[in-house]
Amino acid sequence: MSTTPEHSEARLLVPSQIFIALVVAAVASLGTPLITSVATTFHVSLDNAQWTLTITLLSGAVATPVLGRLGAGPHRRATILATLAVVVAGSALTVLPLPFAGLLAGRAAQGVGLGLTALMMGVARDHLPEGRSAATIALISVVSIIGAGVGYPLAGLLTEFGGVRAAYGLGLFVTAIALLAAWRAMPAAPDGRSAHVDVAGALLLAGGLSLVLFLASQRSLWSHHLEVAVVLAIVAVLLLCGWIASELRSRTPLVDVRAVRHPAVAGANIAMFVGGSGMYLLLTLITRYAQTPHSAGYGFGLTTFVAGLVLVPFSVMGFVAGKLTPTFRRRIDASFLVAGSAVVVGGGFVLFAALRSNLAELFAAIGVLGFGVGGFAAAMPGVILAVTPASETSSAMSFNYVVRSVGYSLGSAIGGLILAAGTDTGHLFPNDSAYTTAALIGIAAMAFTTMTSLALARRRSPETSPTGAPSQDRSSR
User: Fold this and answer.
1) Whole-number Å distance between alpha carbons of 61 and 319
2) Which of 110, 262, 283, 342 lies 20 to 30 angstroms, CA to CA, from 50?
């Protein structure tokens, strides 16, 4: 049963939730457009500079399930404020004239904020009327993805005029505002909640996820030290298997693994993993293609700022899809919307594979991608939350976002591997055909996502009531 915050808080609640989700996504994405500038400013290699993005994804993936469990308990408001305080402190580290290690520490602290998205969904489900909460949750999911399109061009512009510290200074400014908004608007959790963090499970999950994301981001490790990569992959699998065993035995699991096995939740997570890989693959391909100089025989040689502007259609169309999806959701099952969105993303791959000779075609492909991603993100929570008790909203969605993070990292790694394989010896840039090959693989990934979502739609659970609430709370089992 939802509770209503005080009137002054209620007016600010939804805007604050949307703003916080947008800020943590945009700040986390700052690592991508600044990698070259970081390498130049700190006199490190591009591989080392890549860690300003990798470490953010790592800390976010590790923190998300822990914050999701804390967010299910009575101290959710304190958890939100403390997490944002960590993000603000990390943002300050990225601005101060510290060595490269200090920048990495700051980026790791910023990544912790990625776990707040699921908490914002839990707040919406607890404190807003059912119809409004569904639309708000969908929009929170969308802005957590399209935030990259907001952060890229601003970061590029500030870097060109003020250097890399100025770009990170933007992150400090907006995260401080987000902390103020949360302090003013976030209500306390409903009475009767309890949450205990499974420390052993958290450590096992952290170790397994860290290795998975590390292996996905370090392409050179697979090409030059295959034996080491294989050993680390085996260790990652063992750690994750140990985590599953620990969660099944625990009375207070970090993630309800039994609930994850529900056909709706399992299917949604599979779709998110494969679909997320495909979505981030296309995003990687388009941004890299746009910045490739003309001397390579293709590409547009765009600066960081102008290349960031290419992502504006991604954000705009994603937002449009996010606003339209709740309306369609009243008439169409969420699983069908996920499937349809995967088809749209596949259409973006087709456009990129066939038409990329001018910027207008690139804008069209990124716009189609944005619309598909927006619809996918907005519909996904409906699939999972239809069979999830309100008290487990943050925990259930946090696991889905961990799956998404791993999928994104895999998509980026796949793109890099394909382009590296398509680069002739002695050449700096890959052949144009390598982009086509990567696009075809992306089309296959989105076809698999579509079929998974359609299979999920055909297996409508009898546990799901017409209102979208679970007919039986799992705590009664």
Assistant:
1) 24
2) 342
Give the residue among 455, 310, 325, 320 at the shortest CA–CA distance from 380: 325
Which three-class secondary structure string do you get for 109-161? Answer: HHHHHHHHHHHHHHHHHHHCCHHHHHHHHHHHHHHHHHHHHHHHHHHHHHHHH
Digit-coded pLDDT (tens) for 183-222: 999 988 776 566 667 778 888 888 888 888 788 767 677 7
Long-range contacts formed by 453-456: CB under 8 A, 24+ apart:
453/267, 453/271, 453/335, 453/336, 453/338, 453/339, 453/342, 454/335, 454/336, 454/339, 455/267, 456/263, 456/264, 456/267, 456/268, 456/271, 456/335, 456/338, 456/383
Question: Judging by beta carbons within 10 Å of its beta carbon (0-12, 13-18, 19+), is residue 27 exposed, middle or buried?
Answer: buried
Q: Are residues 59 and 177 in the same domain?
A: yes
Whether residue 462 is predicted with pLDDT greater than 50 in this model: the reply is no
Note the pLDDT tens digit of each residue in 309-338: 888 899 899 989 988 988 888 888 888 999
Length of the chain: 477
Q: Of 286, 71, 37, which is closest to residue 155 (Cα–Cα)?
A: 37
The answer on 189 and 227 residing in a single domain is: no
Is 1 inside a domain boundary?
A: no
Domain that holds residue 203: 198-253
**267: which 2 tokens?**
């299917």
Residue 81 token pair: 């404020």
